[in-house]
Amino acid sequence: MDKISGKLLEMWLKIPRWFRLFILQAITIYVICIALFKGVEVLFNLGGSIGLKELFICLLASLVILLIFKKLPKKK
User: Fold this and answer.
1) How distant, in Å, are the alpha carbons of 14, 18, 21, 23 from that of 55?
2) For residue 39, which of 26, 58, 60 has the smallest C-alpha distance?
3) pTM score
4) Would you list the domain boundaries of the chain?
5) Is 47 in contact with 55 (CB distance < 8 Å)?
6) For 1-56, what is each residue's pLDDT tens digit?
7) Helix axes of 17-44 and 52-71: crossing angle, nearest 10 degrees
8) Distances (CA, A) of 52 to 40, 58, 65, 72, 73
9) Which residues fall within 8 angstroms of residue 9, CB to CB, at 6 or more apart?
10) Which of 12, 51, 65, 73 has the fewest CB atoms found within 10 Å of its own CB?
11) pLDDT of 28-41, one tens digit each?
């Protein structure tokens, strides 16, 4: 590891674990909410505003999210 990478890793590890996890979860929730709101917006404006490429990307993202939910352990 070079000096810059070592310094960045050292700075990252000094941040408390709960705060690092919070930041990553906040970014994930933000991205999911943006995708959800854009999806609802496209749904209401479906008059030709979505192309085949965008439809394929949305279906692929939905499939990935579905697979993630299926892999999660179920609580009894």
Assistant:
1) 42, 37, 32, 30
2) 58
3) 0.49
4) 3-71
5) no
6) 688 999 999 998 898 989 988 988 899 899 888 888 887 777 777 655 667 787 78
7) 140
8) 17, 10, 20, 31, 34
9) 1
10) 73
11) 899 888 888 887 77
